[in-house]
Amino acid sequence: MSRDAVDGVATPVRFASLTDATERDLRALNAVLFPVRYGDAFYDDCRRAGGCTQLAYAMDERGSGSATTTTMTLAGAIACRLEMNAASDGAKLYIMTLGVYAGRRDGKIGSRLLTHALNVASRDAFVKEAYLHVQTNNFQAFEFYERFGFEKGEVVKNYYKRIEPPDAVILRRDLGASWTERELEGVTFDEDAA
Ligand SMILES: CC(C)(COP(=O)(O)OP(=O)(O)OC[C@H]1O[C@@H](n2cnc3c(N)ncnc32)[C@H](O)[C@@H]1OP(=O)(O)O)[C@@H](O)C(=O)NCCC(=O)NCCS
């Protein structure tokens, strides 16, 4: 269990959108957590996904009484892209990365980032489904996404270039009526976050 988490309690976080001010934090998080160096096009796509891409900042308090100061430190983020579907009659939410720094895990930050992205995407009737790639041996990821109603689809051989095994499974879920908006406990929002 991480130092932040207390049995099943959601760590208080502040959500912020991807902006000039926050992009450096997302780049640093992705560099630490993922074996791929994402270029500028990735971050442009993330911004175009609007509120689906979201950064979660932990609020760390120091001192006591009137001398208390609060520092906001990035704890995790979800990075999404919106894609047109094959028939051009709807869009798909592609989850590119979802990551929480190791010391901040198990405080429901990842779950709330994913919930928020699905909430936001489902408000737009044009967005019909959400999907992502997961490495075929990432059983924890299957369990995690199953809780949100994702189902396994096809295997994409040699999807990953530098990791073993190189194959990915597509996980997807409908975003029509089957997704009911969920509340986010312990989240405050920056003005530009929704
Ligand atoms: C996946 C991840 C974002 C979850 O963040 P989190 O804030 O700890 O998530 P929550 O507290 O909401 O949920 C914790 C659950 O995530 C699961 N989990 C742990 N590692 C995971 C992983 N690599 N992939 C997916 N789920 C994972 C745990 O099993 C835990 O389940 P539990 O509640 O039954 O114990 C975080 O573990 C992470 O950043 N992992 C490394 C990056 C990664 O693999 N991301 C891609 C996943 S597709």
UniProtKB/TrEMBL annotation:
UniProt GO molecular function: N-acetyltransferase activity
GO BP term, pick one: mitotic sister chromatid cohesion
Transmembrane segments: none
InterPro entries, per the entry: Acyl_CoA_acyltransferase, GNAT_dom, N-term/lysine_N-AcTrnsfr
Residue stretches making up the N-acetyltransferase domain: 16-176
GO CC terms: NatA complex
Domain of life: Eukaryota
Keywords: Acyltransferase, Transferase
PANTHER family, per the entry: N-ALPHA-ACETYLTRANSFERASE (PTHR42919), N-ALPHA-ACETYLTRANSFERASE 50 (PTHR42919:SF8)
Protein's UniProt name: N-acetyltransferase domain-containing protein
Organism: Ostreococcus lucimarinus (strain CCE9901)
